[in-house]
Amino acid sequence: MSRGTQGTRRSQRNVVYRAVTVYGRPFQTFQLSRRFVTPYDGPYNPASAIGTQVDVTVIDRDTGVPLDIHHHRGRSYVAGRPGTRYAIRISNRTGERVLAVMAVDGVNIVTGQTADWSQGGYVLAPWQSYEITGWRKSDREVAAFEFTSLPDSYAARTGRPHDVGVIGVAVFNERIARPVPAAPPQVYRSDGAKSESDAGNTARDELAEKSGAEQRASADAAGRAMAPQPAERLGTGHGAREHSYASATAFVRRSASPREVVSIRYDRWENLVRAGVIAQFGLGEPRAFPKSARNDGFVPDPPAR
């Protein structure tokens, strides 16, 4: 592997690292510098970050506030607003460098390829955090992430709409050469068919089943007519370009498979409510202290049977 180079000038605001080949596949890796990134200095909110090797958070850049994570049926979701710029904040929770191969809507945010674990990503130093704000365009620019309608998303505009609505991070540990004690020279090599049931139904049973199916279809049609139609799904657009300077280095993965994969799905608030991801509460009288118990400090009565 050829040795990479890293810029040392303090004027560089975004340091990019390129690795040459890992497991026979070329890829690029990038790392953001402290000056370019806008670190989030507010209180840590575990409801807005997920991950074990790394913490992944989606930040609303217009307000600077992390979007809450909503968990539903084993998946994680955030609610976005059309037209809002966002950033992906990633924090290394380990004492060693890690590579984060990152994708938005099934597209690698560094290379623009349909996402695959073997591709390039961002390198994080031990315990460091970065806010990644856009699609990498060159070693000097990114195009801002912004929530937009699905047809206007970068993935849809490049003919790849099927995976719109998800942010993914695959985390790899670095292979580090460890010193070994002196020893005599040695040679090392790197290197169903579905089972069918009988019909057996009488004409009367078939007629009853047909009648029941017609009734269910009629009820479903009435329900669909009454239910609110879902709003158009969100995607991530290719926003305005922002400065982001670069240099290069090398990173060797410890394994071909990621140590951890983090996925965060996103959509409009109303669509997540409709899907049952976010509980919808009635619009009653606003309360000054909604989480405070409304009793006199003693044991309340149980619910009525």
Question: Could you characterize the architecture of this molecule?
Answer:
By secondary structure, the protein is mostly beta strands. Helix content is 11%, strand content 29%. It contains three helices and 18 strands. Strands 3, 7, 8, 10, 11, 12, 16 and 18 form an eight-stranded mixed beta sheet that branches. Strands 4, 5, 6, 9 and 13 form a five-stranded antiparallel beta sheet that branches. The chain is globular.
Based on the model shown, name its key terms.
single chain, five-stranded antiparallel sheet, disordered N terminus, 305 residues
Determine the N-to-C terminus distance.
72 Å
Overall helicity: 10-25%
Number of helices: 3
Low-confidence stretches: 1-27, 33-44, 186-203, 223-227
Summarize the structure.
The protein is mostly beta strands. It has helices at residues 154-157, 203-226, 269-274; strands at 21-22, 25-26, 29-30, 49-50, 54-60, 65-66, 70-72, 75-80, 86-92, 98-104, 107-108, 121-124, 129-132, 134-136, 141-149, 166-173, 234-243, 260-268. A hairpin with a 3-residue loop joins strand 4 and strand 5.
